[in-house]
Amino acid sequence: MTSFNFLSIALDARRITRGAPELLAARQHERLNELVTFARAHSRFYAEKYRGLPETIRDVRQLPPVTKPELMEHFDEVITDPAVRKADVQKHIADLGNLGKPFLGKYMVWTTSGTTGTPGIFLEDKNWEAVISAVNVLRIGGEWYNRDVIKGMMKAGGNSASVFAGNGHFFGVTMLERQRQSNRSRGKRIQLIPVTLPINEIVQRLNALQPAMFAGYASALGLLAQEQLEGRLNIHPSIVISSAEPLSAENRALIQQAFGVPPRNNYGCSEGGVMGYECKQGHMHLNADWVLFEPVDAAHQPIPAGQLSDRTLITNLANRVMPIIRYELGDRVSLSPEACSCGITLPVVNVEGRTDEILRFTPAGGQVVPILPLALWSVLKETPGVLRFQAIQTAPDVLKIRLEAKHAHEDAPTWERVSANARAYFASQGLGNVTITRASEPPMRDPKSGKFRNVWKA
Ligand SMILES: [Zn+2]
Question: What does the pLDDT profile of the chain (458 residues) look like in tens digits?
């Protein structure tokens, strides 16, 4: 049986990080079978789904894939703890005061929208929490925090700033809140700076805090690098961490130039946690001993290494409260056919991912104001009554919104709230002149790519 003790996870992860591929394969096999046995015994959903399959699973591909809408529809049957009810979890997350507070005192909760546009709720148990912290300390700690970084952090007093969306139970902010609450004496030194603030206010707060560790969405970091190069921002972090969005070559170069350190990049999602981390060569290695990762085509058939997949199936080998087994993610990825020269034997992945662009609006008689797609997304997503939306910039001062309310009979009041929130957000950015209009059509997938995008420029 796998032990979920911090030390044994860390020691085992250390053996696997640079170990033989056979060792990794053996762990994957053992952990998959423990997970499947547990899910069959405690989740009515998986018991039904796996009826008729052999007791021991040789290959993950023997198991049928699952999707987010399916898990959300059967939430109470998926969850292995009968004390957890979807309605109660929804009440818990409706209150922002519960950010970072565990549900029933033991489960962390995240919400997500993702590529299908269907809202999702995910629970994380103590096993997974132990795995995430042990694996991160060992792998990310070992790769990113060299002597210079640690010296720099101590010199700067260890302050850290994260520029994330703070207006919902998203992965980044929930992790951060948990860190703050478990670290009360340092709570004030670990700051969340809401990405929804106007850029000059973000700059002011960063200048005041002088963070040694600075994290954010790739697009926000790119924008702030520009602020630093133009002299308005003046900070000297010893480490810069990019997450949630793919880090483009342009942003990578800009960040390095502005802050004098190479950005560190990780790859995660609510369903799989921190799934990958970049090594010193800049390659993204997967934590494949804890997350099975299958690049597939639209019919869920495997895509060979070196070729770009249409989507990805992931299996979270640690989490027991909500088994995530061959779960479909919209990420387009390719596995590298070659081993990385850094010596880490964990597989290397390239993630195409989301490529939301920064929108640029023009205020009446003023200079262009950049709007970060994830900031606008978080404002609209957290409006009560919203099921799905898409925000499309159609002119320098016009935003068109496609909206679907959770309940059809509440369509009109939901639209009123959405348009009021959008107007207030734009006004806070000095863009009171922007017109918010409602599209006649409902939210839909892109006819060409089949993906569901949230924010873009037409
Ligand atoms: Zn490497």
Answer: 888 899 999 999 999 999 999 999 999 999 999 999 999 999 999 999 999 999 999 999 999 999 998 999 999 999 999 999 999 999 998 888 888 789 999 999 988 755 455 678 999 999 998 998 899 888 988 888 888 888 888 887 788 899 987 766 676 667 677 777 766 656 668 888 988 888 889 999 999 999 999 999 888 898 899 899 999 999 999 999 988 777 877 888 899 999 999 899 988 887 888 899 999 888 999 999 999 999 999 899 999 999 989 889 999 999 999 999 999 988 889 999 999 999 999 999 998 755 567 889 999 888 889 888 888 888 888 788 888 889 999 999 999 999 999 888 999 999 999 999 999 999 999 999 999 999 999 988 777 666 677 888 88
Q: List, as own/partner pairs, every contact residues 67-73 make where C-beta atoms lie below 8 angstroms and the sequence separation is at least 24, other chains included.
A: 67/116, 67/327, 67/328, 68/114, 68/116, 68/118, 68/120, 68/327, 68/328, 69/116, 69/118, 71/45, 71/120, 71/322, 71/324, 71/327, 72/118, 72/119, 72/120, 72/121
Task: Provide the token pair at 340.
Answer: 């990385």
Distance from the alpha carbon of residue 26 to the mean position of ligand 1, in angstroms: 22
For residue 9, the CA-to-ligand 1 centroid distance in Å is 21
* CA of 387 relative to ligand 1 center, distance in Å: 40
Domain 156-267 has CATH 1.10.10.200: no
Fold category of 359-457 in CATH:
GMP Synthetase; Chain A, domain 3 (3.30.300)
> How much distance in Å is there from the Cα of 347 to the middle of ligand 1?
9
Give 351 Cα–ligand 1 centroid separation in angstroms.
15
Instruction: Tell me if 6-129+271-351 shares its fold with 156-267.
Output: yes
Separation of 282 CA from ligand 1 center, angstroms? 7
Task: Give distance in angstroms: CA of 147 to centre of ligand 1.
Answer: 19
Determine the Cα–Cα distance for residues 187 and 344; give it in Å rounded to an integer. 34
Contacts of 126 (CB under 8 A, 6+ apart): 4, 106
CA of 343 to the centre of ligand 1 (A): 6
**Cα 261 to averaged position of ligand 1 atoms, centre (Å):** 18
Type of residue numbered 191: Q
Cα of 284 to ligand 1 centre, how many Å? 7
Q: What are phi and psi of 31, to 5 degrees?
A: -70, -35
The Å distance, Cα 18 to ligand 1 centre, comes to: 10
Q: At the fourth CATH level, which superfamily is domain 6-129+271-351? A: ANL, N-terminal domain (3.40.50.12780)
The structural domains of the chain, with segments of one domain joined by +, span 6-129+271-351, 156-267, 359-457
Ligand 1 center to residue 57 CA distance, Å?
A: 31
